[in-house]
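Progress against Task 2.4 (sequence-to-structure conversion) is shown through the following example record, which the project officer requested during the mid-term review.
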Amino acid sequence: MKILVLNAGSSSLKYSLLEMVQTKVLIAGLLDRIGETGSVHRYQLANEQPQQVAVNIENHQQALQALFQLLTASQVLTDQRELACIGHRVVHGGEHFSQPTLITADVLSQLNATIPLAPLHNPANLLGIREAMQQMADIPQIAVFDTAFHQSLPDYAYRYALPGDLYTDHSVRRYGFHGTSHRYVAKLAAEFLAKPLAETNLITLHLGNGASVAAIANGRSVDTSMGMTPLEGLMMGSRSGDIDPAIVFYLSRTLDMSNADIENLLNKASGCKGVCGENDMRRIHALAESGSAEAKLALAMYAYRIKKYIGAYFAVLNRVDALVFTGGIGENDHWLRAACCENLSILGISLDTSKNLNPARPVADISSTDSKPAILVINTNEELEIALQAQACVAKQNAA
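Structure tokens generated for the chain above:
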């Protein structure tokens, strides 16, 4: 059984083709700079070296055509009918979508209604879906939502302290993101701990250029740091995370900044980039080691914000079986993991310095023997999680 996972951005198309029986990635790649000068196709076939090819791709229709030409030429897919389904990453599902969903005309209409909630992401996701449905009308198309895992939040966690009609009439609430990653590592953590997921309490830290924390009680998300948008919560690569909302009014009044300027500032010019001019954590470490005070401050702020959420989510959960680090930074930055766990003995957290330097893959326990919660490093795999959810959705449809 083969499943194609697609993640369409405004000028990109990321994909993975998976063979589900052996859980093997046959090919993964990215068509980038669609509609721009210098379009490029980066891809890697299983057990081969990465490739990069200059292409002329004017739109997503041509991107999908180029993708299927490559799949055929490389013989990982000889006929579209080999696909059990196509799983589409959709950033925002609003309150309506809490499960992977077979895409129909009615579902597309409902997804259109979510665009105001994620104007930077959902239009591109929908563009990819529509093009895929046109070119592969006979293949089931499944939407898998970043927000779905967090639909189990209780109302006191997802509601903002705002007038009720902003929620009931305009859907203003916490939704949370990175749900496929939080769900995936939660399952692996429970398996590693030899506990049923439904009896496992976790704090999962997805740390990349975008970053979020989730409090997971008995396998279900009960709180998460990102909010109505991915801007709230932790300090990130170029996003501010939590700030005083009145700063927006101050910037507007004193600097005469427009809403668009402020939105761009908070999403693309803040976070680590705003503090030290860089959003690549490897570069920030290099700058800090060379003596940059701004880079040292960015690292200290980044770790400090994470520690505050760890403490808060201990209070939410009461019992924590494991603290889980994942995402590009969480999986690879030993300094940050140590900094996040430093001086948290009051919570029973104790890191093994030696284990932390070189954790095993895909799951490693880096806690010391006296640590009450385990401290785990788990390689996330959002594409596999999307494929698994899409597979389950198709099976459910076929059984109905």
